[in-house]
Amino acid sequence: MSGPNALPSRGGPKWPLALLRQFVHPLALLLGVAGGLAWVAGTTNLAIAIAGVILLNGLLAFFQEQQAEKAVEALGKFLPDRAPVLRDGHVWHAPASWCLATCCRFQPRVRRPTTPENGRSNAGFRPA
User: Fold this and answer.
1) To which H or E segment does residue 116 belong?
2) How far apart are the two ends of the chain, measured CA to CA in Å?
């Protein structure tokens, strides 16, 4: 493991290349060859259907990839900037991008259930 513990950002718009990648996928190319053979064999309806499948598959895969990237970016906003770290017996708050599982031991958060004895309800608490 090397590099910062952070989600990579993609920078500017890369959608034309991402869309093109869906149509030069090996399975799409194989279907293209099959469509070409169907056209040459005189079964134009089959060739048109295969072309439709290639187009529909490419567009659906592209939109799904775009939604997944947006979801990752939205989840990245929930990541903390700093993390409590236990090093050499001392707890300090390091930038979260510095913390790797191989070099830092994270301080565990203790989740205590609420009980009627301490004045709080324990409704909705599920032990881990």
Assistant:
1) none
2) 30
Q: What is the pLDDT of residues 72-123, one digit of tens each?
A: 888 878 777 777 777 777 777 777 776 665 555 554 555 555 555 555 544 4
Cβ-proximal residues to 107 (8 Å cutoff; 6+ apart), any chain:
84, 85, 86, 91
Sorted by sequence, the CB contacts under 8 Å of residue 91 that are 6+ apart come out as: 84, 85, 107
Confirm if 22 and 62 have CB atoms less than 8 A apart. yes
Residue 84 CB-density burial (10 A; 0-12 exposed, 13-18 middle, 19+ buried): middle
- Is the Cβ–Cβ distance between 63 and 55 less than 8 Å? no
| Residues counted in the chain | 128
